[in-house]
Amino acid sequence: MNISKHEQRVLHELALGGAIHHERCDNGKIHAVTCFTRDGHVLADCTFDVFLRLKKRRFIRSQNGKPYRVSRQGIKAVRAQLNQR
Q1: What residues does each domain of the chain span?
Q2: Which family does the record assign (predicted)?
């Protein structure tokens, strides 16, 4: 499956232990997301559009209202990078 460069970067950070924190409107829909690395830095590549594409492809998931993390499908889709090998 083809994954864009920004999606690949976000998935890579999530696979290393990052998380996507989300904010909801009064009607329950997500309106803003912020991706944090495991070191606590904010990843600028994670826009709302990238978040929606990853969620639609089921590469990320949330359980019980917690921050979004990478799913098993997301781990399989991410390409190995030098610091993962």
Answers
A1: 5-77
A2: Belongs to the UPF0386 family.
